[in-house]
Amino acid sequence: MQIQAAIAKRPGADFEIEPLELSAPRDDEILVRIKAVGLCHTDLGVRDNPVGLTLPAVLGHEGAGVVEKVGASVVKVAPGDRVLITFRSCGVCPKCQSGQPAYCGHLLRMNFGGARLDGASSFVEGGVASNFFGQSSFASHALTYERNLVKLPADVPFSLAAPLACGVQTGAGSILRALDCPPGSSVAIIGGGAVGLSAVMAAKARGCRPIILIEPLEARRALALELGASHVIDPLAGEIAPAVRAVAPTGVDFVLEASGVVAAAQAAFGYMATRGALGLVGVPPGGSKLQLPLDFAITFGLSVRGVIEGDSDPEVFIPELLALHKAGRLPFDRLITTFPFNQINAAIAEQKAGRVVKVVLLMD
Ligand SMILES: [Zn+2]
Ligand SMILES: [Zn+2]
Question: Which ligand has the nearest atom to the CA of 147?
Answer without folding.
Answer: 1
